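Follow-up to my post from last week.
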Amino acid sequence: MRLILVAGSTRTAAVDGISAAGATPELRWHTPSADAELVRYGRLVRAPLLPTSPTGCPTPALVTRAVVELLGLDVVVCDGGLAKPTGAPTVGFGAKPGRDVRDADPVSTAPGAFAAAERFGRSLDEDHLVVGETIPGGTTTALSTMRALGESYPVSSSLPDNPLARKKEIAEAALSASDLDPGEAVHHPELAVRFAGDPVLAVVSGLCVGALDSGTRVTLAGGTQMVAASALVRHAGSVGPMELATTSYLADHVDLAPAARDLDLDLTVTDPEFADDRLAGYATVGREGAAMGGALALADRADVLDAVEGRTLALLDSLDASHGDSTVEEDDRGP
Amino acid sequence: MRLILVAGSTRTAAVDGISAAGATPELRWHTPSADAELVRYGRLVRAPLLPTSPTGCPTPALVTRAVVELLGLDVVVCDGGLAKPTGAPTVGFGAKPGRDVRDADPVSTAPGAFAAAERFGRSLDEDHLVVGETIPGGTTTALSTMRALGESYPVSSSLPDNPLARKKEIAEAALSASDLDPGEAVHHPELAVRFAGDPVLAVVSGLCVGALDSGTRVTLAGGTQMVAASALVRHAGSVGPMELATTSYLADHVDLAPAARDLDLDLTVTDPEFADDRLAGYATVGREGAAMGGALALADRADVLDAVEGRTLALLDSLDASHGDSTVEEDDRGP
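User reply:
Got it. Predicted complex:
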């Protein structure tokens, strides 16, 4: 079994008020790179700061890392269009940061990335892949991707109040910018992800199609972005067994049952039962991300769910203690 | 403790008769990518074939992988200018494949790669880094690098008969192409590696300088290429404790004592005591590479040296059984 984290970015995250995956819009570009380092190393290497929501809730990547340590999981990070350097080793598929979905052809690297990720997923030849994502703005691109496919499942939010009206506006603008009618990309996932999606969705869905094709069991570790990824996989004609493993925080907020039924996903919902104040924010902000729900499901199955909170707090303490380099350097890899 | 494998390429390897790190010149471009996959996963993912010498001796990466499995080591692959795709996740420093050292400015990405690797080595903040390399043609660029620094230590070879005269010719041509006199780059490692070296040496030496600066203990896992890397580190003014850990096959072939003394390297030589015919080639071909000597030293310290041969043979069997995709695809990442 291997845990894969697909980390990337879309300029859609720069739209005001749609993402809490980072304390400020500028810091949000660093979130996927930082999440990748946290899940892979348990600390920051190149990324400047621990990602938090504007209200100070730490990234769910900490919870995933806690489970990685408890279970000794092997982590592979895949580059789904990173905008900033990461110290985590990454597998590349040619994905570049996505442009705003309201631009024409916002994810021109999607077809190549999908194909390369598909080959990789097939060649890895694992018994079981658990695949998570980290991409600020990703629920908005998930929504527009599903609209292009003609699927109408709801999406969640990393914000306390889901700015759904705003997301729907963006999704409509995305489709119209690419001259797509809702549902026009049915059975054409390559069109949906390229013209209405993001590079992380391209890599995740490619990985899944390849993995399923080689008989690998797939767990999608996440919420509504992973519903969009599953929709892409099913619209690609891939019918293998997939599990959607998410947190109770997410599942309490959005009804996943219709998507699970229609897309033939085995739904697993895990309640982390966090009691400490410092982790209380996950229930209303963040909720899911960086494979948190999948990691919790693995912890539950291994009977170590009780130990996750303590380990997460220990990580948070060690990161607070090290402070890290809190200056945010400008670099030439911005999207 | 973490095992770092720096994988890259130099066009110098295309010179006839200087490298056995690959069955044919064309396949040699794939060797570092394949070695990275073998050390990280124990199997091939994107690389087409198990690297062997022209006489069929398998890559030393198998031995390193055997130790990784026996000790549960964490492996991080760094991209030191890979020419072909690898399925191993890699940390990037902007290194590109090196040109022939006899070209002017053969490693123009060296200064940036050195600086980025230095920051990474410092930020990783490990107690102990074990650093290996895989780059066909690397002993020739090691020789010309040392000539530029004014160091005259001998280099080894992956071939049964070391084509030293040919290597010296190339080293001289390298210096003259870049208008450097022997020794002219003394205390200027950035000039030596850029004008007479290869991108792997740039990344390895940068990593070491950064690691030593943050108090990390460094083991250079390899032979004479690692002597050249140490020379770069010392010429950069870095004085921290470094160990050179290699195989008896290499140390029986080249006297490392003078370099160890002058460069203040703690020398560790490990005899793998392989008895099986299929591994006999390492004694006269290959000898060292892909961190083999350092891995053996770790196995010896953990008292599992006896188990390495069996594990290596099991890996070889599993690779023989899977065959893999034996077609060599052309791609756009050639150097």
